[in-house]
Amino acid sequence: MEDEHAAHNYGPLPVVLAEGKNARVTDVAGKTYIDALAGYSALNFGHGNEELIAAAKEQLDKMTLTSRAFHSDRLGPFTRDLAALTGKDMVLPMNTGAEAVETALKIARKWGADVKGVENGKQHIIVMDGNFHGRTTTIISFSTDEEARAGFGPYAPGFSVVEYGNAQAVREAITPDTVAVLLEPIQGEGGVVIPPEGYLAEVREITRENNVLMICDEIQSGLGRTGTTLASQYEGVEADMYTLGKALGGGIVPVSAVVANEDVMGVITKGTHGSTFGGNPLACAVGHQVVKMLATGEHQKAAAERGKQLAEGLEALVGKGLVAVRTRGLWAGLDIDPELMTGREACEKLMENGVLAKDTHGSTIRLAPPLTATAEDIDAIVEAVRKALGADA
Ligand SMILES: Cc1ncc(COP(=O)(O)O)c(C=O)c1O
C-alpha cells in the first residue's frame, strides 16, 4: 500500500480503490467489488450518483464558500426543505457527524440552563451502553468502548450511561438536572443493534413526562437506510432533536445538521455557536439535492424492498455459519459463528468473493450497501456471504 505516511488510525482491508459507480467499485488492478459498506452509509445513493454529481458540478462553477458572515442563496432553500423532510422548524448545518452530535449536546445543555432552569454546570445527559457518536474528546468520554476511550482522558463530566434497550433504566437515571437523553434508534457501529419493540416510544414518554429532551442520533440510521426517512419513525416517535450526517453529503462532501423546533433551537443565538464551513453553498447544494431525492420516498421504498431480499437471503444462512442476523431496511448485522472465523477474517473472505464489508466488535459484520443497489447486487452479496462461510448452496 502507498499510504505509509497516513496515521495508523484505521486497519483497512488490503484493497486500493480507484473508481466507483453506484454499488460497484474497482481497484487499481481492475478487479470489481460490490461496496456493501457504502462509506458507513455516507453513500446511500451510490458512487457517482448522477443527480448529486450534477448538483455539485453546477454549484462548483458558481460559488463554493461564503462563510456564514454573509448570506448565500443556497442556505435558505436547503434548510427549509430539510426542516420539512424531518418535520421540524429549524436546521443548524455543520460538517461531520461528530460536530452535529457536539452541537446537539451544546443545544441541550443551553436549553437546560436557559429554559429548564438547571444551574449552569449541572446539566446532565443520559447516553447508552454500546453507543457510537463520534470521536471528539467529549463524545469519547461517554463511550463504553475502551479502545475508543483509553488514554484520552481527562473525560468530560455530565453524562450517565445506561443499558441500551431498557427504558426503565432511563427512568431511573433521570435527576432534576437531566436535560437530555441521547440515543441511536438502531446502534450502527454497535453491530446494527435493534432495541426491543416499544423502547423508543417508551423513552419518548419518559422524557416528555420529565421535561427532558430526546435526541435521536440518526447520522447512520437516518436518510432512508432503514426504509423510512428516519429510523425512529418506525415506532412513530418524534424526537426533540435529530442529528443527521453521512448520506446528507451525498458521498461528495461532509454535510451534517441538527434539526429541532424553535422552542429548542431558539437557545442558539448570534455568536453562541458556529463553523467556518457549516452550511457552505456547495454543501447546501448537495444536501438540498439529497433532500429532494428523499422527498419522493423512492429511496426509502427501495431500502425496504432490497432489504427484504437481503434479509431473506441472510436468514437462510443462520445455523450455517451465522449465529444471528439483524436487519432493518437495507441494513444488516451478521453475527458470525466465532468458532468458524473472526469478523475480520470473514471480511477478507468476502473480499475474495467480490464484496467489501466491515467487521465491528469481534465476530459481527455490518452490511449497508447503497440504497440504489440492484437486485443482482443483493443476490451477489448473499452469495458471497454464503461462500465466505463455506455454507452449502
Ligand atoms: C450514529 C453516529 N453518530 C455519529 C457518527 C460520527 O460521524 P463522523 O464520523 O462523520 O464524525 C457516526 C459515525 O459512524 C455514527 O454512526
From TrEMBL:
Cofactors that this protein relies on: pyridoxal 5'-phosphate
Entry's EC annotation: 2.6.1.13
GO BP terms: L-proline biosynthetic process
Enzyme class: transferase
Keywords: Amino-acid biosynthesis, Aminotransferase, Proline biosynthesis, Pyridoxal phosphate, Transferase
Pathway it works in: Amino-acid biosynthesis; L-proline biosynthesis; L-glutamate 5-semialdehyde from L-ornithine: step 1/1
Keyword field contains Amino-acid biosynthesis: yes
GO molecular function, one term: identical protein binding
Alphabetical list of Pfam families matching this protein: Aminotran_3 (PF00202)
The organism's place on the tree of life at top rank: Bacteria
Assigned protein family: Belongs to the class-III pyridoxal-phosphate-dependent aminotransferase family.
Protein name as catalogued: ornithine aminotransferase
